[in-house]
Amino acid sequence: MRCGESMFQIRAMQHGDIETVMQIQAECYVLDAIEPQSTFIDRLHTSPKTAWVVEDTLGVCAYLVGYYSTVGNITPLGGRFKPTLSNCLYLHDLAILPRVAGQRLGVTLVNTALSQQPDHIQYTALVSIQNSVSFWQKIGFETQALDTDQTENLQTYPQPAFYMLKRLIK
């Protein structure tokens, strides 16, 4: 993929990327949103086909981590992904280094993830934090209400936090 004068490559996240992913997370998120390295290792092991990175000439500069879930279910911040019968790709974490901001890498990563989904995945969902609702709305996500148990899980994220959903057209 070419963006401006830079070349970017999207590929599956690998175990060797975790240290860099942790650095990106620390640079992009508020302290209350940072999850431990052991959590990322567990998630990559649990759902390796739903984690991607973007590389440029300087190395990994963005990532997207997701897992399969059902609509309306949220893993608490720092919680373990629990594989379930699924109809939804839950996008848990998207981060892009400021040095590559403005290159549309977030949209490209999301579109890459959605293009690789099997037919039974009818939705994609996420929790929006750090004033990112407008970004997600621009690419088709809408805020959704949750039941009481899931609202408690939503409260584990830095506030304000919003559950958002997008129906996939296949």
UniProtKB/TrEMBL annotation:
Residue intervals of the N-acetyltransferase domain: 8-169
Keyword entries, A-Z: Transferase
Transferase recorded as keyword: yes
Gene3D superfamilies membership: 3.40.630.30
Superkingdom to which the source organism belongs: Bacteria
GO MF term list: acyltransferase activity, transferring groups other than amino-acyl groups
Name listed for the protein in its UniProt record: GNAT family N-acetyltransferase
Organism placement in taxonomy: Bacteria, Pseudomonadati, Pseudomonadota, Gammaproteobacteria, Moraxellales
